[in-house]
Amino acid sequence: MAERDAPIDDRIARVSEREWRETGLDALLNGAREPFVLRGLVADWPLVAAGRDSAEVARRYLLDHARDRAFKVAIGPPGHDGRLFYDADMAMNFRTGTGKLADIFAGLEKGEILGDIRTVYLASIDIPTHFDGLDDANPIDLGARDLLKSIWIGTRTRIAAHNDYPDNLACCAAGRRRFTLFPPDQYRNLYLGPIDNTPAGRTVSMVDFAAPDLAAYPRFADAMAHAQTAELEPGDAIFIPSMWWHHVEALADFNILVNYWWRRTPAWLGQPQDALHHAILAIRDMAGEDKAIWRDLFDHYVFDNDGRATGHIPEPARGILAPLTPESAGRLRAFLLRTLSR
């Protein structure tokens, strides 16, 4: 694969682009299961205008809205290449800390002046709790969706391919971003790392996209045959459906991304990742014949879910086999907490 600042490899499919002005954003997003790019979606944001002026103006704009509280930041050591990943011992190759946004920006600007540019990355900062009025000043209409609103700020970075459970609309506000996307079923070809030791909470691909080692990761070539890529300029946005893998590169010296996450299911339902962790704890190390029994039971109660498990039970007596409600989900969550604390 080409170096990160080179043009996109022509052999990789481009993410399709959609026209949103006539169709409407809400209509495009309803039921969408494929990624697409929306050029100029947030081009009229004041934040985008500030970023087009200069990195310094963009930083001042953010400081004008920043709350007086600590921001979490990842910082690379001298010589760090922007790839926020593992080191040779499978620890993180960056350190994390907290500080006021003004102090973080002051350190970044000092490095720019001295020519000692370190990797600085503020990832997934919750906008309402860390900024006052930033969301209102840079609006987007996503209908009745229950949104998690985040901002990502930093220098040139490379974020390993990972996926997220919610749907994601990512808006480039300053700098440039390159996304390389893979369908959910490509996880075997991406050579995923540990589940419980991750750079940012999600399992990541172990492949270095800038210099893929196909001797160590031969199936990565198959993943790239299914890849789609897009490069965003300020004002552009990309829709990343739930569970699509995405490798993200910040290509400018200073970059800002704003993204919106939302679930297709109610927030009171559980997180599938928690169920995976529990299955590893309770089922994975069973004997093969025992696992086969539990696989069949999971199909019966969870994946098929076609009525055969409940048709013979009176409706009032179906308990958690009936469609969950906030109340029954709460009771189930309380039961799980009691059993897991034993």
Automatic annotation (TrEMBL):
This is Cupin. PROSITE patterns: JMJC (PS51184). Signal peptide: none annotated. Residues 116-277 form the JmjC domain. SMART domains: JmjC. InterPro entries: Cupin_8 (IPR041667), JmjC_dom (IPR003347), RmlC-like_jellyroll (IPR014710). SUPFAM superfamilies: Clavaminate synthase-like. It holds the Pfam family Cupin_8. The lineage of its organism: Bacteria, Pseudomonadati, Pseudomonadota, Alphaproteobacteria, Sphingomonadales. It comes from the Bacteria.
